[in-house]
Write a structure and sequence with these properties.
binds zinc ion; mainly alpha; 2 domains
Amino acid sequence: MLDIMLYSYLFIVGLIFGSFYNVVGIRTAEKQSIVTPRSHCPNCQQQLAAMELIPVVSYVLQKGRCKNCQKSFSPKYLLFELLTACLFTISPIVVGWSKELLIALLLISLVIIVSISDLHKMLIPNKVLLLFGMTTFIVRLFIPTIPWWDAYVGALLGFGLLYLIAVVSKGGIGGGDIKLFAVLGLFVGVKGVLLTLFLAAFLGMLFSLVLIIMRKLKHKQPMPFAPFIGLASLISYTYGAQLWDLYFRLFA
Ligand SMILES: [Zn+2]
């Protein structure tokens, strides 16, 4: 019974944070303040009343439309709210009700925000990276589920590898992706960074191949990469040990 209450609580907290991350992701990408002005309709600029700001509930009640101009809101907002809530809720199942839960929630938050920014404006805001990077840099010293040096070397390796790829591919990878990998290294460590890179490349290629086949994407057209990096880092964070195990059993 207590468990159900705790999980429901995490789900609701996830919805509220997810709704806030929509604002953070979009406004930092637009280089606007996240505090002012109050949330408004992206179409008619009408300020949203308190009743229109309740995650999911408002969206459903208003059938996904602005009360003032009737224009539909993008379902992306709703999806990211629900995704944050779901990921928050399953994280104690993955890491337990332990100190590591803080790391897991930080990682989920980072992944959600940079994905929103990248989808919105094709960029990963420095402010977000700096905030999460500094926080995790310090927190890792106190929550050593991976040794602190593993986290720090992972960050250096993430930065170095992506920098190298950017040089070799002559700008095929953005500066934001390079810095994002450095921050992710703090979460997943050395092995995790390698796995994240491999999975992100694999998922990104698979997805763009599907889009090219469906003729939704032109060859060489840039595509936001952060959602793939984010998804890859979450898989690597959750299943890293098992995937490495599988790799060694197959190839070593
Ligand atoms: Zn409107």
